[in-house]
Recover the amino acids of this structure.
């Protein structure tokens, strides 16, 4: 599996990370090095093996479906780069 | 190094309880050491006011006779832990200015026990790195230097600031986190003890997430007893983290008898990797001999899927990171890029993340995005999770056959030079984790114990791997190894 610059650009787009066009060939080369390394996993016989989902067979704990927290608008917004009138502010999303 | 700031937790605890020293004395001694250790770049956010206030409260508790073991003990905290009102940046530009409105569970437990926060410690960005060189603050520096050389060495990563701070006597102990070796490798590089508990032993709540199925917090300390004492205060179930285990936390310090007669130590033949430096091989053999002399039976074991651990890790960890780091979008916290006229929300995300994430983090997020993308999910991510099952099964079978603990080297080399890996490809750096990463994949507890010096006078560590939830037994084996190895070397002060 070899990654070309078009695939690298697509992955960057999916990851929402801006990569300038002139940086794409180097990025694709790095991807290929890393993917070449993980390609070894293809040698392992995983027939009939279940994917590991947890480290120990402990069932996830459940809790009562009740409100335990809230009314913390100021705290929630305190680190926002742009907050106005009690909301997070972002560039216009809908025309 | 001042005498007070170089105490073990156990010695300081006993002196505090006797009234020979106060928490304020210990704290001032550490603050002075930190002031004069700028060259190590270990402490990246200083909190002397918090420290003095906590020390005063600890002294009041000690006077009242209400003093848990950690009461009055000055600590450094890895920058990955959210600490209320104190910068918590994960050494990333994207969290510049972030001051959490909440406290991580692990640090909250330490403060409840009376511990003192001296400051936040350097690390690799988002804990992604093995040399501390991906930090936005610039790298921390190892207090150790090779004999006759003044070349700066890495303290390891990702918990490199924690390791450097403990080794240089800036604090009595520090918190670390370990996703693929990030406690154990820096501990080995700096001649200290580093414990990664069983996955789920410590709550992950309030610790900036890297790879949620692998991340685990643990203590970085001067010796094994201190690791037992500090883990005691950090461990326990937390309703805020559904993966934290609701099982009893035993008395770890009480388990340190040093008596390991009749236990069985496994030596995994697959860890004798090609090109292993003779000094590492010798150290490993010596360690096995020490445990044998202490009365343990040493047996060769096989962990046949070992060679696939690193590639599986470098699928699973980036995949989970790409998902966890999706939250850094310039909306709720941290950095937001300056936008050009006409830029919409997608440009905001893309520019913010390009500016805020360093090169290694970007690389891992994109690799993770790729292995999770449509058409590749089964080929990479699901296959890696199946391989992980097999890696865990290897360990299960060894333990089922009667092995109590497994002995391996902690790292493939001593600390290397800062900048030495600059031109290497990323995979070369990943090989640092070859002995430690299996433990995260299997969720097991592992500890790095300083066991010797190489010919250049640099510390080397041995790793012991324990059964799930058997930190007590693991610590006791580590204690026996520590006593036999008798490692007392300290770095010569140059900073």
């Amino acid at each position: 599996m070899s990654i070309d610059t078009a695939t690298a650009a697509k992955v960057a787009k999916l990851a929402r990370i801006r990569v300038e066009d002139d940086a794409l060939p180097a990025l694709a080369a790095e991807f290929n090095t890393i993917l070449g390394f993980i390609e070894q996993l293809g040698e392992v016989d995983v027939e009939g093996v279940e994917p590991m989902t947890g480290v120990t067979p402990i069932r996830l704990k459940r809790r009562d479906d009740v409100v335990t927290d809230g009314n913390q608008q100021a705290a929630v917004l305190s680190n926002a780069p742009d907050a106005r009138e009690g909301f997070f502010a972002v560039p216009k999303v809908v025309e | 190094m001042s005498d007070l700031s170089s105490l073990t937790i156990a010695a300081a605890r006993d002196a505090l309880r006797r009234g020979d020293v106060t928490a304020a004395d210990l704290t001032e001694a550490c603050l002075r050491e930190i002031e004069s250790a700028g060259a190590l770049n270990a402490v990246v956010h200083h909190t002397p006011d918090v420290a003095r206030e906590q020390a005063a409260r600890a002294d009041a508790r000690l006077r009242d006779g209400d003093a848990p073991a950690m009461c009055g003990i000055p600590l450094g905290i890895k920058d990955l832990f959210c600490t209320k009102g104190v910068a918590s940046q994960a050494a990333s530009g994207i969290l510049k200015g972030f001051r959490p409105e909440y406290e991580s569970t692990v640090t909250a437990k330490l403060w409840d026990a009376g511990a003192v926060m001296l400051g936040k410690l350097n690390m690799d960005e988002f804990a992604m790195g093995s040399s501390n060189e991906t930090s936005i603050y610039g790298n921390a520096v190892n207090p150790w230097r090779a004999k006759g050389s003044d070349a700066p060495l890495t303290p390891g990563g990702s918990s490199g600031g924690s390791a450097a701070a403990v080794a240089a006597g800036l604090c009595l102990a520090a918190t670390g986190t370990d996703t693929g070796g990030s406690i154990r490798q820096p501990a080995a590089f700096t001649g200290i003890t580093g414990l990664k508990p069983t996955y789920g032993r410590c709550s992950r709540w309030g610790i900036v997430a890297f790879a949620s199925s692998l991340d685990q917090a643990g203590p970085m300390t001067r010796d094994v007893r201190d690791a037992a004492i500090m883990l005691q205060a950090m461990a326990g179930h937390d309703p805020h983290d559904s993966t934290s285990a609701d099982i009893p936390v035993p008395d770890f310090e009480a388990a340190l008898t040093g008596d390991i007669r009749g236990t069985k130590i496994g030596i995994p033949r697959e860890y004798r990797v090609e090109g292993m430096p003779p000094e590492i091989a010798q150290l490993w053999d010596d360690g096995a001999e020490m445990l044998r002399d202490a009365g343990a039976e040493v047996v060769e074991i096989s962990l046949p899927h070992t060679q696939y651990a690193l590639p599986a890790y470098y699928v699973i960890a980036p995949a989970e990171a790409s998902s966890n780091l999706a939250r850094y979008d310039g909306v709720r916290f941290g950095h937001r890029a300056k936008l050009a006229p006409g830029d919409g929300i997608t440009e905001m995300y893309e520019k913010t993340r390009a500016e805020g994430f360093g090169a290694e983090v970007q690389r891992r997020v994109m690799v993770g995005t790729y292995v999770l993308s449509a058409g590749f999910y089964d080929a990479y991510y699901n296959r890696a999770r199946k391989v992980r099952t097999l890696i865990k099964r290897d360990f299960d079978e060894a333990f089922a056959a009667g092995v109590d603990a497994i002995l391996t080297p902690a790292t493939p080399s001593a600390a290397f030079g800062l900048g030495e890996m600059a031109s290497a490809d990323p995979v070369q750096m990943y090989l640092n984790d070859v002995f430690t990463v299996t433990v995260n994949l299997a969720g097991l507890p592992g500890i790095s114990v300083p066991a010797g010096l190489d010919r250049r006078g640099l510390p080397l560590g041995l790793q012991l791997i324990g059964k799930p939830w058997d930190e007590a037994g693991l610590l006791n084996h580590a204690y026996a190894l520590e006593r036999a190895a008798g490692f007392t070397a300290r770095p010569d002060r140059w900073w």
